[in-house]
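Note to self: user wants both folds in one dump. Writing first protein now.
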Amino acid sequence: MSAVPTTAAPAAPGTLTAIATPQVNSATQGAPQAANGDTPPLDWESEIQLVSSLAKLQELERKIHELRQLVPGKLLEPLQSLTNPKWGPQGSSFADSPVQLREGLEQAARTQLANIENFKSMWQGPELQPVWAHVESRLKDSAGQIVQPTGMWERDYDVLLEELLKVERGKDEELLREDEEAERAKAQSSEGEWQGVVESFIQRNLPGVRVIKEQETLSLAIALVKAGVIFHVAGVKEPDAPGVADWHVSSRAPPGRVPTKLENSMTECLNSRPRKWDLAFLLDMISSYADLKQTSCVKCNKLTNNSAQLPTIRRAQSTQPSQGEPRTFAFDALHSSCV
């Protein structure tokens, strides 16, 4: 039996049992190769892995039935115009033009052949390679003796997979909240912690970014030279609580000038950020505007949108702290119309 079936047929009942009764030792046979040549491990004891594989097979079977029902009718559809003119081009009958009838049949054949080729690509694609390999391994281990289930799908595995992923996302979000709470407690544990954050940021010497220390407690200014913008940052403390609960940002316009619409848009985005207690996060977010007039939107890849607006929205990328190094944050630029 080959690792990848070469003919399109519904997954046999034994196939489903072979997937749902895993053995870890044979789980990675036939899996796609990683960039370094190693086989990425697949955990066939994982419920999500099993349900995901069954969902792929369920979709494969649905495609098979769809092709069986549609392909014959679509191939012969041009011939229906011989008795029903509404099926012909622009409401005319193909019978009026044998050339058009031939072209219609050829086009129908090309379209359905493309559908079949797409199905073959799905069947033989990298996502299903490890599934077929695991099925064959289970069949080999059991000498082909697999207990047959009912032969019918008992669950909608797409729906079940989404439910499992939702639970998994909830767990991940809870871990993130716990990690953030631990970071917050550490940042607020000392009155002078914020000054160390500022010094670390200054030492990075980012181009076009200047930090201006102010005499007031919990206050500083950041100048973005290229953008021609100065932001004032002030810490806000909660009564009877250590550390800073929020760092508020305002635009500092020169005397006699009110903040521009662009400055107000940036300030609004900065003050609507998450991690309001995290000064390091805020400083990195402000510095992401340093090349504002040269930074394109990550969604539309344009500098300005149809309203001639620059991408002033910032969305934090998912980053992990490096061991032994201060954590830094990166941000994507977006137009407000592209969010």
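First done. Writing the second protein, which came from a different request thread.
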Amino acid sequence: MVGQSALLMVEAFNPDLHAHELPRETLIDLWRRTVHAHELLFETWFAAVSQKYGEDVAEAVALRGWPLRKIGATPKELFFDDLRFITAATELKPEMLTIAKRDQAETPPELSGDRSWFKLFVSPSQLLSGKAKPRRGKPVWVGSPGRLRGMARGRAIEIGFAVLLKAWQSSQGARASEIDVEAFERKVETVYDEKTLALLWNYAALAYMLGTDRWYTGIRERYGDDAAQDLEKDVWIDRGAAEHDLSIGQQAMGVTGDDVESLLRSFQFSPGEVGILDVEFELVDATHGVMTHHACPALDRFEHFDDVRQKHCCDICIAGMPISGEMLNPRIECKPLKLPPRTDASDIACRWEYRLREQS
């Protein structure tokens, strides 16, 4: 569905284009593609683990990450459970949202109700004010990160995320959400406005990317860092998850070109890129562009705390970012201009330059 999106392609590239400014049909298309990507990523991980360790291990790791599989929850039900978890998690950490703001639209009640005691765990401020408020004040670390501060920050994020997930799974019990999926998707198609759809898409992008962390953690617990890293590279590089992610933005936006401008237009609405990262786009000309990641959740979580996973995340990007350009055109070259570690709290996470090589 690219009718109105095609009109955007004839306009000058807008690096500051917001999701809620997209045509409604494009936002619906992004939603659909991201929901499907959640299922496809699960299947890709399951196949990779099965091939390496056997289907029994793959099923055990999947059950650890998605306990609702025990009662036969469908892929769509698993997605909506992850979606509701992310909706709750962003009440506690609204900065997780990168392309929308929680207050730009009302979150549909189907995603925010029926949380049992987890609702109190996530948003105690609701007892007083009825709304969770973003944290104010200085960032967790200022000036030079320092290994001690970084370790404390990373440990807090690691423990907090694990407790949050356990609380969610405990509050849900052994049952799938009673949300009427078909009715909700009809509202996506016919009721919700652009700002609501943009917020829902950001939730969906986070839910989709959540899957890799669950698979990685499950394999790491069983077989160690090297095994988990090899499988993540297999999934995202060898089995094409990185290419598929870029294709979501490319197809939804109706991108048909093969230059650097077309690449940035595709990245601009790829859920695994802008859906989890704070990204700035700079188009020098149609053959030259730069992408800056101002913030990265993996870096916030692992810097000075888990050097193994930080290096692995960087290695994935160093391999995956060039592949994204080559997918569009083999003559597009990628060069990292800045990589971690950061020098201080105001430093960027990383910066990437793309150039279209002249034909020889």
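Dump finished. Worth passing along: The longest strand covers residues 278-285.
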